[in-house]
Write a structure and sequence with these properties.
By secondary structure, this protein is mainly alpha-helical. It has 26 helices and no strands. It has a single domain, classed as MetI-like fold (Orthogonal Bundle).
């Protein structure tokens, strides 16, 4: 054998190894990770750098905590967030049970009533409460008609309306989180408890409640983290004494002299959020953020799984025993119908709170009155004609469509690649990578908008369509990754392997086997990424310009200065858009329910 052939053989394994590496699905993660590194992590790091760039690293932070206005606002934010999370848990648990116990068309209708508001923009849902609680709104008129009030009063701009509005906005998140936990329960355990002589309340307290404590904890923490960064609802429904911490960031953003101190405000809010998530991840696992199971290369052993379940049941039962025996003795003899009617009444109240404002706004959009009132004195299409004939509204509408389409395209391209990399590769640390991919959903939008503003100024992207679309894609990417990862996990890999064995290339396997299987999920992910961008307001407030106005930005300006039925028209069109998207996503949601119940 010649030395040349020996040399070729010696180099062949290295070449083959390079080919294998190029075909490694883990490489598909690189585009999404590079995108997030530049447009998400880098601005946040720069935000932290500016916040510590004072005379000393802590000078701006010392000022934040030394000024009573900001300290009081921070304490108030914690109090409101905990209260809202508690209210959501109180009303969300019975609603999740109501969905679980319903059957057939009733279950579909109840679930739709919960899911529909979840995808409607926060600004529109808050505007609906402004209509409902206004001086000419239905609640004031009802109270006057039954004699509780002699004349309409101001029901808005107080702590109660802030709590009501935020609870109504975040309730669907709590319900969906708890329902996913309830749906995974082994129903034979509750039946065994009843067969052993336990009453229905005792069976609930000793079996169902302990097993659903992780879901309750995940829901509470998700709502709490979301409430910490709330900005829209407190601004529109609250008074001067209800200002939350995120509101100070937007108020200071226009001040040229606040650089450094403004970034310190953002870092404080970000640090609190990340600290809460870190503590939650320590006890619940970070999977609670995306509502999935741990992404590992191999399934856990059966013995480990059973041991873990037993441990959770034991811990949950211990907690229930410690706090619940007095209640159990008090209510243990009540008939099962008491619990059934409690679930129905509380669940019905939640559905009314979520759906009624939307229905009222849709009816007002057809009002013939020249001002905002309910019920309308007559019905007309005058406000629809005004909306479609107003050049400012239509320009904002088309701008939102273009930005949302570009943002969805970016999110789909990067998210689909990342989902394939997560699901199909054997890379280590999948859960950590997934956490990075979905982490934008836990960062307060005002903090993200503030951090992006500095980066966009540097690259002259403020007020540009592409820059706004790229910023919106930061939030659309987690949606795409979560939906497509779930869809890919439902694909039978043996079909892909069979196609590859018969000579099909990786691209051909994806095009002819994988893509048709995940098409419903891809369509749903595209729509929800589009909808996320179409509804996005907070980032747009930081990154738009006088020449670039989106529909939410126009809506925000009008809500702050005047309330008229044109806003109800915009809200109605949004609701119809969401309904169309949910119909489109129905196959994916059905698949997710089947996967959850298994």
């Amino acid at each position: 054998m010649s030395s040349a052939s020996i040399s070729v053989q010696a180099h062949r394994p290295a070449g083959l190894d390079l080919v294998r590496r190029l075909k490694d699905p883990a490489l598909l993660l690189l585009p999404a990770l590079a995108f997030l590194a530049f447009i998400y992590l880098l601005p946040l790091i720069d935000l932290i750098r500016i916040s510590v760039s004072g005379p000393s690293w802590s000078s701006y932070f010392a000022r934040v905590f030394a000024i009573p206005l900001y300290w009081d606002s921070l304490v108030r934010t914690m109090q409101i967030s905990v209260t809202v999370a508690g209210l959501c848990l109180l009303f969300g648990y019975p609603t999740a049970l109501l969905i679980h116990r319903s059957r057939g068309i009733a279950q579909v209708l109840i679930a739709t009533a919960i899911v529909l508001p979840y995808f409607i923009a926060i600004l529109i849902r808050t505007y609906a409460w402004m209509v409902l609680l206004g001086r000419n709104g239905p609640i004031n008129k009802l109270l006057v008609s039954i004699g509780i009030l002699s004349e309409p009063v101001q029901l808005l701009f107080n702590r109660g309306t802030v709590l009501l509005g935020m609870t109504a906005v975040l309730l669907p998140l709590m319900v969906l989180t708890i329902y996913s936990s309830v749906a995974r329960l082994d129903q034979s355990l509750a039946r065994a408890a009843l067969a052993s002589g336990a009453g229905p309340i005792a069976a609930f307290w000793r079996v169902m409640l302990p097993l659903t404590l992780p879901g309750m904890g995940a829901g509470f923490l998700l709502v709490f983290v979301a409430a910490i960064g709330f900005f829209i609802t407190p601004t529109l429904l609250g008074g001067p004494g209800d200002q939350m911490f995120a509101m100070h960031i937007t108020q200071q953003a226009d001040s040229v002299t606040s650089e450094g101190f403004l970034q310190a405000l953002g870092v404080v809010l970000l640090t609190i959020t990340l600290a809460v998530v870190a503590v939650a991840g320590r006890f619940l696992g970070f999977e609670f953020i995306w509502g999935g199971r741990k992404l590992t290369e191999a399934a856990p052993r059966a013995t480990d799984r059973h041991t873990g379940d037993a441990g959770r049941r034991s811990f949950g039962a211990s907690v229930a025993d410690a706090i619940g025996w007095p209640l159990l003795r008090l209510f243990g003899r009540l008939p099962a119908s008491c619990g059934t009617w409690t679930v129905r009444l509380m669940g019905g109240l939640v559905i009314a709170v979520l759906i009624l404002p939307i229905i009222v706004v849709m009816i007002i959009s057809f009002s013939s009155a020249s001002y905002l009132t309910f019920p309308p004195p007559g019905f007309s299409l005058r406000w629809y004609e005004q909306f479609f004939s107003d050049s400012n509204w239509m320009r904002a509408f088309w701008t939102s469509l273009v930005v949302a389409a570009m943002s969805a395209a970016i999110a789909i391209a990067l998210g689909a690649s990342a989902a394939l990399g997560i699901v199909r590769s054997n890379i280590r640390g999948k859960s950590a990578i997934m956490l990075l991919l979905v982490s934008p959903i836990i960062v307060p939008p005002v903090v993200l908008g503030l951090s992006l503003y500095s980066l966009f100024l540097r690259f002259d992207l403020v007020g540009s369509v592409f820059g706004l679309a790229a910023a919106h894609a930061i939030g659309g990417l987690p949606i795409v990754v979560v939906i497509l990862s779930a869809s890919l996990q439902g694909v039978d890999t043996r079909l892909e392997q069979a196609a590859a064995v018969h000579g099909a290339s990786s691209l051909t396997v994806f095009r002819l086997v994988t893509l048709p299987a995940i098409m419903p999920g891809l369509a749903a992910a595209t729509f929800f990424a589009f909808l996320h961008s179409f509804d996005e307001l907070v980032l747009t407030l930081f990154l738009s310009s006088a020449q670039l106005k989106t529909l939410p930005l126009m809506l925000w300006g009008d809500v702050n200065y005047r309330l008229n039925p044109v806003l109800a028209v915009v809200s109605t069109l949004e609701v119809l858009l969401v309904i169309a998207g949910l119909v489109l996503a129905r196959p994916v949601l059905a698949t997710s329910r089947k996967a959850t119940s298994q």
